[in-house]
Amino acid sequence: MKAKTVKGNWSWRTKKFALPSVFLICIFFFLAGFFGSSLFSHSKGDLYGVRPRPRLLESTTAEADNYLLPAGETGDDSITSIPFQVLSWKPRALYFPKFASAEQCESIIDIAKAGLKPSTLALRKGETEVNTKGIRTSSGVFLSASDDKSGTLDVIEEKIARATKIPRINGEAFNILRYEIGQKYNSHYDAFNPSEYGPQKSQRLASFLLYLTDVEEGGETMFPFEDGQNMDGSYNYEECVGLRVRPRQGDGLLFYSLFHNGTIDPTSLHGSCPVIKGEKWVATKWIRDQEQYD
Description:
It is built from five helices and 14 strands. The chain is an alpha+beta fold. It has two domains: about 1-50; about 85-290, Jelly Rolls, CATH 2.60.120.620. Strand 1 (about 85-90) and strand 2 (about 90-95) form a beta hairpin. The chain is globular.
């Protein structure tokens, strides 16, 4: 009887603790599996560099390679990708961050320094150097890519052609400009209105500005008529208002002076705000609607 009692008590205790034990064991294995799978997932991600954006880029690159077409005599055998931001549709203005390296910018400044002269204006009917004095106070020099033995301007010019989708032969020589403290360029158009400047053999279609230096204060490129602002006739062509783009070394700015039908976009009026602190260097490439041979 005593032995049976002991056996009965043991059986009762086993049944008493069976369910809690099984429950705890299940929880243990569930947690172990959960944390184990998470750890494995993270380890695998670190090991293979699994990140959504790079994988997407790899896939895009692979697909691009598969879909390359045979190019023409003047075409490319590779895909070109140049990041940009649309700053405005009125005027059409695009911003290209890190378009050139710091080394390239400094190289351009070095070759331009020796040839700097006071900047000049294309005069309209009735204008003279005397009555237009103070409108444009920078200094500059015109340089073709062939003038740069380092090859930097050649590389930049080729990249501008790809960014604008306009052949290099449509571009004028680079106008390398320096703005010191207080120097500026009042608001103006890059395109030449035939009613003011006379008949034109070709027209400036677009302008590409490559900022060669940072500017501590001032020196912004301004578009006072952006999206129709300040067009009530009260603007004095000197005030820095509207859309303003701060110069940053290596960044590029592209804007179009003409509409698709060839007429001048009135919102493409732009200027250079006075430099307040520092020095501004910029390489300007004017691009025309016809090929340039001189």
